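Tokens for chain A. Residues wanted.
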């Protein structure tokens, strides 16, 4: 039996993004090999490659923004390989399983390893899926006589060490960094975050498991950095300390550097010392806002002073930081938005990277429910899921904010210009500054202004097609516009 996997994703976006491979497939492949002794598994980059591989069973993974594309892929596979079952997976379908398109035979809801292994066993036995043989399978959604059937929830896998190390050899990966999950889930409940749909409970691998996987990565790949891609690597302080101690005891900190996710309300000198000891050189965290009011709305369990403390601490210990921020939440005012940018700009020398994205309602989150109630999104066939792409904004994008108006944006432009000038920054000169932090900041501010154009000035984009306007032109235009507009 041969299984083919494909991830629905815009390949152009993948080139522009920080290239992170889909680890779900290599975890599934490892689980199938360990428990079913199945090795004939491949991952295709394109639907043509998938079809040429002649799989007996197809698995498609999709984020919300690529859900339309996933259905298109399934349609092409259905036409080229009639009779081959197509199984959908991912956070999106786990959140809204009742939306399963008819082009898919079924979907896996939630954590996939045990469920998919049971489906493979079932298919090996019966050579097909039917409503009758799917009835007893937990954690799926399927069709019966035109109706959608959602089966019972499948418990999470515990202990997590039952899941074997992912089969990285299946990836076309030649980068100098690799990713490693030492845990699944997050103990916090931010209202915009979707991973809790699949992993509603925080679980962690044993320290032995983590150390062995690090050693395996170093034997198999020539990497300079391993990124702990957990939702929150520092969630469990005793475990964090134990991992750090073992890394040092095994001498791994001398062979490779590490990166990890942190959280501002947990950061202190002790954690920084632990991270520094194990050679963590880069941390990533969601700061989200420079306004305490907006942080509270996000359910962040943090405050601006904690964010500032995190930046100060990482700078003190020589750990590079990327902070991500979310703009245009429903209650955000232009004052809140300016507070965010004041926080960013005054810390420009403490931030290696900054990302600012609009709030995107993701299915299964409380923010999604708000968007549904306001009629901004739907869960039927009329929904264009590309509108949820908050990283590569298009004219299909949406905004959750109903407070900030065009005249507020003009004021924001003026004050942002003044703020940059106060800190010795210039839109043109700083982009090519010998200080890489200045250039990175201006680049990301420019990307954010492009997002603003898509939200508030789509007519400007239409005027200047096919080439999109330079975002740095916007502040200049704002000076000749009146706030009465």
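Reply:
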């Amino acid at each position: 039996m041969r299984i083919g996997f494909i991830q629905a994703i815009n390949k152009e976006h993948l080139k522009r993004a920080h290239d992170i491979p889909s680890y779900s497939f290599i975890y599934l492949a490892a689980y199938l090999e360990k428990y079913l002794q199945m090795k004939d598994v491949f991952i295709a980059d394109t639907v043509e490659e998938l079809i040429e591989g002649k799989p007996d069973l197809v698995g498609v993974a999709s984020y919300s923004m690529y859900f339309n594309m996933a259905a298109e892929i399934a349609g092409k596979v259905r036409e080229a390989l009639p009779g081959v079952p197509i199984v959908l997976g991912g956070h999106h379908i786990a959140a809204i399983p009742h939306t399963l398109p008819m082009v898919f035979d079924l979907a896996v809801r939630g954590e996939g390893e045990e469920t998919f292994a049971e489906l493979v066993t079932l298919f090996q036995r019966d050579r097909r899926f039917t409503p009758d043989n799917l009835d007893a399978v937990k954690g799926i959604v399927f069709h019966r006589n035109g109706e959608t059937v959602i089966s019972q929830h499948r418990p999470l896998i515990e202990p997590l060490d039952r899941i074997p190390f992912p089969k990285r050899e299946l990836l076309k990966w030649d980068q100098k960094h690799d990713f490693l999950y030492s845990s699944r889930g997050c103990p916090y409940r931010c209202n915009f975050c979707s991973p809790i749909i699949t992993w509603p409970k925080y679980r962690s691998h044993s320290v032995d498991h983590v150390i062995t996987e690090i050693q395996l990565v170093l034997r198999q790949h020539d990497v300079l950095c391993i990124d702990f891609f957990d939702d929150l690597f520092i969630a469990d302080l005793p475990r964090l300390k134990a991992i750090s101690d073992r890394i040092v005891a095994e001498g791994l900190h001398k062979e490779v550097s590490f990166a990890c996710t942190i959280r501002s309300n947990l950061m202190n000198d002790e954690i920084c010392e632990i991270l520094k000891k194990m050679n963590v050189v880069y941390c990533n965290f969601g700061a989200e806002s420079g306004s305490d009011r907006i942080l509270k709305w996000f359910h962040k369990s943090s405050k601006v002073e904690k964010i500032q403390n995190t930046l100060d601490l990482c700078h003190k210990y020589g750990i590079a930081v990327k902070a991500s921020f979310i703009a245009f939440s429903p209650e955000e005012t232009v004052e809140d938005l300016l507070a965010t940018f004041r926080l960013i700009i005054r810390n420009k020398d403490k931030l290696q990277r900054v990302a600012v994205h609009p709030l995107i309602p993701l299915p299964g989150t409380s923010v999604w429910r708000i968007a549904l109630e306001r009629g901004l999104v739907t869960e039927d066939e009329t929904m264009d899921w590309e509108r949820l792409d908050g990283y590569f904004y298009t004219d299909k994008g949406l905004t959750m904010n109903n407070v900030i108006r065009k005249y507020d944006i003009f004021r924001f432009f003026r004050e942002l210009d003044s703020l940059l000038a106060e800190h010795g920054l210039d839109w043109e000169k700083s982009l090519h500054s010998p200080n890489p932090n200045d250039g990175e900041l201006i680049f990301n501010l420019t990307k954010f202004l492009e997002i603003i154009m898509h939200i508030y000035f789509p007519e400007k984009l239409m005027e200047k097609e096919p080439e999109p306007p330079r975002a740095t032109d916007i502040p200049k235009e704002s000076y000749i516009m009146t706030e009465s507009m």
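The first helix runs from residue 11 to 16. Residues 464-485 have pLDDT under 50 and may be disordered.
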